[in-house]
Amino acid sequence: MTDRLPRIGVLGIMQELYDHMIPGITERQAGYARRVADRLGDVADCVIGEPVKSRADAERAVRGFENDDLDGVLVVMLTYAPSLRVTRIFDRMRLPVCLANIQPDPAVTPAWDMDDMTYNQGIHGAQDTANAMVRAGLPFDVVTEDWQSDAFTERIDRWARAARAVTAWKTLKVGVFGYAMNGMGDARVDESALLRKLGPEVSAIAPGDLHRAMDSLDTTAVEDLMAREDERFEVDARLSKEERDDHARMQLAIEQILTERGIGAYSTHFDAIAEDGRFARLPMASASSLMAKGYGFAGEGDVLAASIVYAGHRLAGDGHFTEMYAMDFPSDSILMSHMGEGNWKVARADEPVRLIKRPLGIGRLDDPPTLLFRIQPGPATLASLVYLGGTDFRLVVAEGEVLDSQELPVLEMPYGQFRPASGVRGCMDAWLRAGGTHHMVMNLGHAAADWKVFCELAGIEFHQV
């Protein structure tokens, strides 16, 4: 679900005036736009529109980008062009925008003539165009760079991934099996505000639908899933065929429901499953494997966390649902874990992921097969989506590293120790003051700059701690 490159429309803007001054300039600058797109080929699948010279051209090009289900629009000034020709498209733009403040030649030289001045005068067109975007209230990113540099590719890569995540969010459906955990305030959100401001739509799923889907599954599909688990994981010999069969049915049934209803993220709450009375165990391993396939997930009916895990997949790859469990002051780190759900794609490369038989008192059901692993040491980033009321949202972000830390042999759920770059004391003081929630997404690597662009495009306050 997250392997494809972002699909980006390249909107090249110029004006007819220069066709009379410099014959062939349109073809020349169109070639420049193609070279820019080729330069970005490793980070984006670029769709190049014809050079835009009028309001009609601009509106036609953007309608085409939107109808082609692209992720964003990269605006490139091919020459100076008055912004009023594109102002209206910015007033109704649905796709995330980046203004590439670039020019064909990186340096001014004594050999330049007036033609060269015209080819390279995009900067004041960018100023006029950016002014129109600001007046329209359109969120956008800006990249000023030499387009042939690695820095340009890196910055457009960051924006394109953010655009892909934001665009996917606008049509995201988050399924909640049963109901959310009673009394858990930091996961509460006005669902209408979430839909209006950011896009995710919440869809309630009756536990009975899950039960019926489990009963209707083909035995071959269940056996195929267990065979794949045998190949991928170190399977606990204590797990019975009945336990594994039941777990596999839950995972396949959940995925079937998500697929049929167009749902990209989901949440289950242990009480909602347990109180139904028709289920033998909680779907712990299911959450781990579905996250590994690119679905957003959060426990306890937490729609906000499920949404941000989904965004984390598309922004930085392999979003991992987790929470801060306890502080370890001697190592200046925080133990990260949850009840048993975690994306096994962030597991240590030097240790097998284990599918274990695991007693669990929560829910008062039978033992749920659980995927157990330690998180890969190295750079990592945490992000928490906070609802502030009205249509205001904040993203609290912390960079740091997962330590190559001690084993905790009694802990039977995914875990790792995260050392914030700002230290436990500074990070937690700032996290709590910002209202950071107790459920969050972790991505391997330093991704704060990626989340910052994401927030700019989505209209979310960015707060790094």
From TrEMBL:
<dbReference type="Pfam" id="PF24856">
    <property type="entry name" value="AraA_central"/>
</dbReference>
<protein>
    <submittedName>
        <fullName>L-arabinose isomerase</fullName>
        <ecNumber>5.3.1.4</ecNumber>
    </submittedName>
</protein>
<feature type="domain" description="L-arabinose isomerase C-terminal">
    <location>
        <begin position="319"/>
        <end position="461"/>
    </location>
</feature>
<keyword id="KW-0413">Isomerase</keyword>
<dbReference type="GO" id="GO:0005829">
    <property type="term" value="C:cytosol"/>
</dbReference>
<dbReference type="InterPro" id="IPR004216">
    <property type="entry name" value="Fuc/Ara_isomerase_C"/>
</dbReference>
<dbReference type="InterPro" id="IPR038583">
    <property type="entry name" value="AraA_N_sf"/>
</dbReference>
<dbReference type="InterPro" id="IPR055389">
    <property type="entry name" value="AraA_N"/>
</dbReference>
<dbReference type="InterPro" id="IPR009015">
    <property type="entry name" value="Fucose_isomerase_N/cen_sf"/>
</dbReference>
<dbReference type="InterPro" id="IPR003762">
    <property type="entry name" value="Lara_isomerase"/>
</dbReference>
<feature type="domain" description="L-arabinose isomerase central">
    <location>
        <begin position="177"/>
        <end position="311"/>
    </location>
</feature>
<dbReference type="GO" id="GO:0046872">
    <property type="term" value="F:metal ion binding"/>
</dbReference>
<dbReference type="InterPro" id="IPR024664">
    <property type="entry name" value="Ara_Isoase_C"/>
</dbReference>
<keyword id="KW-0464">Manganese</keyword>
<keyword id="KW-0479">Metal-binding</keyword>
<dbReference type="Pfam" id="PF02610">
    <property type="entry name" value="AraA_N"/>
</dbReference>
<keyword id="KW-0119">Carbohydrate metabolism</keyword>
<dbReference type="GO" id="GO:0008733">
    <property type="term" value="F:L-arabinose isomerase activity"/>
</dbReference>
<dbReference type="Pfam" id="PF11762">
    <property type="entry name" value="Arabinose_Iso_C"/>
</dbReference>
<feature type="domain" description="L-arabinose isomerase N-terminal">
    <location>
        <begin position="58"/>
        <end position="169"/>
    </location>
</feature>
<keyword id="KW-0054">Arabinose catabolism</keyword>
<dbReference type="GO" id="GO:0019569">
    <property type="term" value="P:L-arabinose catabolic process to D-xylulose 5-phosphate"/>
</dbReference>
<dbReference type="InterPro" id="IPR055390">
    <property type="entry name" value="AraA_central"/>
</dbReference>
